[in-house]
Every structure is written in C-alpha cells, then in structure tokens.
Amino acid sequence: MPHFTCIGNSRDDIKESLKGYVDMGIENMLALRGDFPAGWEGTRGDFSYADDLIGFIKTEVPQMCIAAAGYPEKHVTATSMEADIAHLRSKQDRGAEFIMTQLCHDISAYERFLEKIRRAGITIPVIVGIMPVLARDPIIRMTVSNGCSIPAELAAILGKYQDNPESFTKAGIEYTVLQIHRFIAAGINGLHLYSLNKWEKLTEILKTAGISN
Q: pTM here?
C-alpha cells in the first residue's frame, strides 16, 4: 500500500502517479500531508493538508480505497486533540475509508481516542499501529519524535536492559505480544506492525501472539 504525501506534489504530478498505481493494480493508498523536509515551511505542492489530498485522489480515482492517518495521542503540530479529531473527520468526509494510526504504546490513550472519534461521527474502521519493541534507541527515537508517550511498563524495559541488547529484544517481544492482545481487547479492526525490515522478529511475534502459524 503506497504512502502518498502532499510534499512537493502538484495536481499533475498526483494524476500521473495515480495512473501508474492503477496500471499496476494498486487498490489501497495511505494519503498523508507528510513531514516537511529540513528547511521547508510548507508542502511546496498544490495541497497543504491531507484531507484536500484525499478529496482530490477520490475524485480522480473513485475506486481507490484510501486510508487516513490517525493520532491516538494527537499529532505533534495539532493545537488540540479536538482540532486533530475535527481534521480526521474531514478526512473521512472527503473520502477516507479507514484509519491507520500512528504508533501507540498507551492502550488507555487509544481507548480514549476511539471513544472521542466515534462521538465525533467518525465511523470508518481503525487499524492500530504498533511498533515492536526490538531495540532500545529506535523505540525511544520514534516514540519521542512523534509525540507519543512511553508507559511505565515500557520504561522499565528500557531502563533494565539498556546494556544487554539480547535480553532487551526478548523482553521487548514479550511486551509487544502482550500489547497486541491488549489492543485487540480494546477494539480494533486490524493491526499495522512497523516492520523496519525486521521481518524475522515480526514473524516470531505473530506466531507467539497466535495470529499466524
């Protein structure tokens, strides 16, 4: 599923890319504003926000199933959770058919997010993003840079095994499996595991969680 952004893309660029995706048989797409490259103050494209991009894609290729990004702990640049949810509602109204969330370790934050978006009239399915806990530095970097919290249980693993990568990975896999079960219990429509090219470990996680054989 391609991740398509507003960054540097004109309407003509988007049309050309969409034609290529359709020709390849691509049926699903995650449409995002995208992160600004260093030194940029805007997208430098024809669209500044994801909801406008989603609306354009849906008009050009109505058959494309579009995912929108959701942020259980609020996007780092959003002024408030309410403003962020209003933007998410606009993504749905412009044509998004499901939500893929930013990584989230905090189950309670996800449950509050789910309750709030449903009250706001957002009815589309939610695919929750989980970053497997496999190495200490990437977990800290990705979590903090995206404005996400580190629960006490995860913080304990980060502190206890900081000098023992092998034991950290073992404890991290156990934690990730538990998180998968917790998210399923909280109510999700699917899982998106951030692989970071660690497919062998993800296979182990999925088998241990009972999701695959």
A: 0.91
**Distances from the Cα of 36 to the Cα of 45, 46, 48, 74, angstroms:** 11, 14, 11, 18
Q: In the chain, what's the furthest Cα-to-Cα distance?
A: 53
Averaged pLDDT for residues 122-133: 96
Measured CA to CA, the distance from residue 140 to residue 150 in angstroms comes to 8
Measured CA to CA, the distance from residue 196 to residue 184 in angstroms comes to 22
- pLDDT at residue 212 in the model: 78
Alpha-carbon gap, residue 54 to 69, rounded angstroms: 11
- Record the tokens describing residue 176, joined without a space: 């990730």
Burial class (CB in 10 A: 0-12, 13-18, 19+), 4: buried
Pairing of strands 28-32, 190-193: unpaired
